[in-house]
Amino acid sequence: MSVSPKIYVAGHRGMVGSAIVRALQSSTLCRSGAPAANIVTRTHAELDLTNQAAVNDFFTQEKPDQVYLAAAKVGGIHANNTYPADFIYQNLMMQANIIQAAHQHGVQKMLFLGSSCIYPRMAPQPMTEQALLTGLLEPTNEPYAIAKIAGIKLCESYNRQHGRDYRSVMPTNLYGPGDNYHFENSHVIPALIRRFHEAKLAGAPQVAIWGTGTPKREFLYVDDMAAASVFVMSLPLSTYQANTAPMCSHINVGFGSDVTIAEVAHAVSQAVGYQGQISFDASKPDGPPRKWMDSTRLNTLGWQAQVSLQAGLNFAYQDFLTLWERTPRREGINPET
Ligand SMILES: NC(=O)C1=CN([C@@H]2O[C@H](COP(=O)(O)OP(=O)(O)OC[C@H]3O[C@@H](n4cnc5c(N)ncnc54)[C@H](OP(=O)(O)O)[C@@H]3O)[C@@H](O)[C@H]2O)C=CC1
Ligand SMILES: C[C@H]1O[C@H](OP(=O)(O)OP(=O)(O)OC[C@H]2O[C@@H](n3cnc4c(=O)[nH]c(N)nc43)[C@H](O)[C@@H]2O)[C@@H](O)[C@@H](O)C1=O
């Protein structure tokens, strides 16, 4: 009987990390007779990934075979714009510590999660992988984007210098179970789920959303993202290399089409069952006008998103309701991010 590789999922309690754990568990269990996934995890309290010595000790102790790097300092447009030092410092430290320790401890295979914000603000749409480093970044999240670009380049550099197999995926905007519902530091979908839900309970006649409503975003359900992550890691190295380049080695993961913020606000209000009016607060930033990924690389390899936006929003609202009902004083809804 084959032995399962020991897989470290960094950030396993986050929205994406927890979905990756679910995907790894179901992918091994589906193959009849295969043992369950051998997954190793640490909470933030147990292991601060910005601490280089602690990360080294962890790799010495656990000796994982593979790593999914889904731990990061993450937030929406307001958080990125308000805490730029936290976003660049923590992300640079976490990924540098993990990638260097993984290499030192012989981990051959890793998946790094970046973000669509690595591309220039005015990149031609849809954005191909080759658009990286061709123009100026979006100012509201430039520090986070620079850290994510450094993460891609760390992986590529260890591959080129040391023959490692460190792959990178660039997710579009994500949402789903386990999201952060903070009223101002979250991304647009969880923020609006909460705002429409509270407005419905209060009988409020109107809900204001940030910006003009005209920017377009591409939204992917988190379990689709997790499936894409496991899919990319399962590709033979020769296939991955044939579809990427040593210095353009990342793969976009998108839904396939985008919507305006006004359209997604209407879709969220439907999922929540809010029947009042929607208004726009143009004093808040819009961010980039459009961020639509070209996912041809991944689609050609055989992966496609499965969950429609409205179905995903319905699932996400059910997740929010579970959290809401479990936490009468809203502690879990309002985490520090
Ligand atoms: N959400 C989105 O829309 C998008 C996300 N991504 C990327 O996907 C990845 C996962 O994001 P997502 O799941 O949404 O983020 P979450 O905020 O939900 O999860 C991040 C995880 O990282 C952990 N973490 C943060 N700082 C530390 C630290 N210093 N030490 C140890 N653990 C830490 C968190 O633990 P704790 O909560 O305990 O601090 C949490 O488990 C990230 O790389 C992100 O950049 C990319 C594009 C879009
Ligand atoms: C994933 C991605 O996330 C961030 O980029 P972003 O795409 O701008 O993400 P966002 O979800 O915060 O906003 C999307 C749009 O939605 C509008 N909007 C309306 N009303 C609310 C609202 O209530 N909250 C938020 N957050 N946005 C709102 C908002 O004004 C903007 O036009 C990056 O910083 C970057 O880190 C990154 O990679």
From TrEMBL:
Pfam families: Epimerase. Pathway: Nucleotide-sugar biosynthesis; GDP-L-fucose biosynthesis via de novo pathway; GDP-L-fucose from GDP-alpha-D-mannose: step 2/2. It catalyses: GDP-beta-L-fucose + NADP(+) = GDP-4-dehydro-alpha-D-rhamnose + NADPH + H(+). Substrate binds at R195, W210, R217, D286. It comes from the Bacteria. Keywords: Isomerase, Multifunctional enzyme, NADP, Oxidoreductase. Residues 7-235 form the NAD-dependent epimerase/dehydratase domain. NADP(+) binds at residues 11-17, 113-116, 148, 171-174, 187. The record marks S115, C117 as: Important for catalytic activity. CDD domains: GDP_FS_SDR_e. The active site is at Y144. Signal peptide: none annotated. It is an enzyme of class 1 (oxidoreductase). Its EC number is 1.1.1.271. The keyword Iron-sulfur does not apply. PANTHER family: GDP-L-FUCOSE SYNTHASE (PTHR43238:SF1). Belongs to the NAD(P)-dependent epimerase/dehydratase family. Fucose synthase subfamily. Catalyzes the two-step NADP-dependent conversion of GDP-4-dehydro-6-deoxy-D-mannose to GDP-fucose, involving an epimerase and a reductase reaction. This is GDP-L-fucose synthase. It comes from Rhodoferax lithotrophicus. The gene is fcl.
